[in-house]
Structures are given as structure tokens and as C-alpha cells.
Amino acid sequence: MLFIALPVLNEGEFLPRFMSCLSNQTCREFRLFVCVNQPDKWWTDPVKVDICRNNVSAINYLENIRDTDIVIIDRCTPGNGWKGRKHGVGWARKTVMDAINVIANSTDIIISLDADTTFNENYFESVVENFRKHSDGVALAVPYFHKPVQDEGTYRAILRYEIYMRHYVLNLWRIRSPYTFTALGSATACPVWAYRAIGGMTPKMSGEDFYFLQKLRKFGRVLFWNSEKVYPEARFSDRVYFGTGPAMIKGNNGDWSSYPFYSTEFFDEILETYRMFPSFYLKTTSTRVSDFLCGIFGEKDPFAPLRSNARTVEQFIRACHEKFDGLRILQYLKKRQIQQPEEDETSLHRFLRRFYSPEELIEIKDALESLSFRNGRLEELEKIRTFLMKKEEEYQVNSIRC
User: Of 6, 58, 84, 129, which sits with the fewest C-beta atoms within 10 Å of its C-beta?
Assistant: First the structure.
């Protein structure tokens, strides 16, 4: 049985399209759980009250659907909205997943989606088949693709953001980081037994998808390839505090400082420390990463506690990766970016020319020569996005074969 977890906030316009995707699924054994949500105080805020009304309209729309099994969790009508600090998409996603957890069997699967996301008719079936083939998988980070849009500003912003994300994860793949996933709430699935094993989702006002996948990755194997993609909407949105929508808003205003193209040398520094983890079992050596971790954790030797608790080198190395996890990797890269900034186009250029042959790059040769995220032709940026997507898919497919 599949359970679809869907948070909704000010997305009434997308629900008919979303429900059409559901109706077209070849796999029919599913139930849809929806949490329509917003802070209760928005009802008295003239700036936000239209969002509240949109949410009520969404509930009305869902209540009138008769051909789909839908459970609606009302966290939006007056008196039922979020109160205090417990609000945001993270709380909505946790609420809906926890509700599923109460009634589901351990072998059932939770598919997390967003209302503005589309998917092909075989998507649910592909997820079921993936977990059937890989019964040890504790989660699936579904491949994604933002479809082109008509508006030039929106298209340019999403191309720049997606190229950033793929450049980031390709560098993680090449250094063999355990945290090579791109975390999107609309592109995640997990079996119920794994959800229970990690104690469910940790509520966050935003970024819950990242922490959720990281938590699952520390528990077991995350699957990175699926035969079907999801297609999130490319749009300017402030319904979350960080992520695609806010990044596009800031980027459209000329500020991409929170999403730079980190130098390949910074990832090389991480790789250097990865390779030294076995020797750290005997003694920690000073590296840029180990020195960074000393400062983050306030410890003279951040690996000493791991050393004393590990019975084998293998256990120690795993503990090292769990301590220097996806969050710490990002923090390290941000710090190095401040210390040694580099233009985005320069970083991307150097990455591509260093790790791909002239023959591989021939299809984007012209795009690279005129590379400019601000002024470059959209067709050329699209070529780069597609090239990176294909290279990421090569890693993903190979990971399934391992």
C-alpha cells in the first residue's frame, strides 16, 4: 500500500493538476493524506488573509473529490491553524507522515510530494518496484527536473539554481561522500518500517527534507536512482524559509550569495580528510577539515570520542562520516567560500574542464565559451543543465548496480 504525504499552503491553483496526476497512476493502491496549513494568526493579518482563504478553498475542493481516498488534516481554518513557533512546511510534512504512520503497515511506503509537482502515470509503480528490488533501501531520493517555463526571469532563475544543485551533488559523487542526495520534499519516499526506525521526521520550519534524508542515510542505504522522475514547479515562492522558491526570489534580485558554486579544491580538501579517516583511528592529523570540526564542536580532537567508542576501523570510519555529515560539509564549504571566494562561472568552468574530456564537452562547448548566468542565452544554460543532469544520472544508475 502507498500513502501519499502532501502539505498544502496557498496552492489551491495547483491541486487540480496534481489530482489529475494521481488519477492517471497505473498503481491504484494508494491513499492521499493532505495537511492544509498556515499559522492561525494569519487570519488577522491583512497581508496573509488571502492565503488563509486560498487554503479553505483547497479544503473545499478536496472534500468534493469522490474518486480518490483522501484524508484531510485541517491546520488552517480559524482556530485550527498553527500556534506559536510550531509552523511551516516541516511541521506540515511531519504531521501528515505521523498520521500515516499510525494506520500503516510496516511494509507500506510513504511518498512525499508537493502540490505544485507533476509526475508521469508510472511514477507510483516505479517507486514500488524500486523498493521491491532493493529491500534494504531505507529511502529513495527521486531524480527531478524543473520543466522549462515561458517567463524568462523564472526560467533563468531555475536554470541557475538547478545547475548549482547539480554541480554541488556531482562534486559529492566524485569524492564518494555518503551524502550525495539532493533533498527535495517533492522527491522523497521511504518504507514505513524505516520511518519508524529513525523515530519519524524531525520537525523543522524549513529544510525538513534535508534533515530527514540525512537521518535516514545515517540509518541505512538511500537509493539514488529511479526509472521515473518528478517535475517540481519552477516558481518564485516564499512559502518556505529557504529552498528553491526563496533562492529564485533572491537570485532574481541579483543575490545568489547563499548558493555559490564552491571550488573543486574545497571538495578535494574533504576528500583528503576522507582518505585519512583510517589513520585517524590511531591518531588525528591536522587538516583543514579536522581543524574546522575542532571549532564547530569545541573539541581539541573531534575524532577522539569516536575512537574510544569504535571496536574496529570500519566502525570508526562510519562514525567519522556521521559526525562530518551533510550539514557539516555544507558549513565547511560556506566557510571556505568566505575565505577564498571565486566567481560562479569560473568555478563551474574549472570543474567541467577538469573532470570531463573535450570530447564530452563538445556538446556544450559554445555554452561554456559564453557562460554567464546573468546575461547568457537561456538555450545555452539549458544545454549545461541537461549535460549535468545526464552526468548525475550516470552516477545514480551505477549506484543501483553496486
Answer: 84
- Supply the pTM of this predicted model: 0.93
User: Does one domain contain both 51 and 78?
Assistant: yes
**Do residue 240 and residue 335 come from a single domain?**
no
Are 203 and 107 found together in one domain? yes
What gap in Å lies between CA 278 and CA 160, rounded to an integer?
38
Q: How far apart are CA 326 and CA 365, in angstroms?
A: 32
Among candidate residues 252, 273, 294, the one where a domain is terminated: 252
Q: 161-203 pLDDT, tens per residue?
A: 999 999 999 999 999 999 999 989 899 999 999 999 999 998 7
Residue where a domain stops, chosen among 227, 252, 277? 252
Report the distance separating Cα 220 and Cα 187, nearest Å.
Answer: 18
Look up the domain containing 347 and give its range. 264-401
Query: b vs e for 176-203, b when ≥16 Cβ sit within 10 Å of the residue's Cβ?
Result: ebbbbbbbbbbbbbbbbebbeebeebeb
Task: Pick the closest to residue 187 from 160, 169, 167 (CA basis).
Answer: 169
Same domain, yes or no: 46 and 192: yes
- Four-point Cα dihedral 98, 210, 76, 104, nearest 10: -20
Domains in the chain, number: 2
Report the pLDDT averaged over residues 3-21. 96
Report the SS3 class of residue 306: helix
For the stretch 236-264, pLDDT in tens is: 555 555 556 566 566 666 667 789 999 99
Q: How far apart are CA 109 and CA 221, in angstroms?
A: 15
Do 200 and 98 contact (CB within 8 A), yes or no? yes
- The CATH number of whichever domain residue 106 belongs to comes to 3.90.550.10
Measured distance CA(321)–CA(42) in Å, rounded:
42
Dig out the grid coordinates for 61 from the structure.
Answer: 475542493
Tell me the pLDDT tens digit for each residue of 122-131.
999 999 999 9
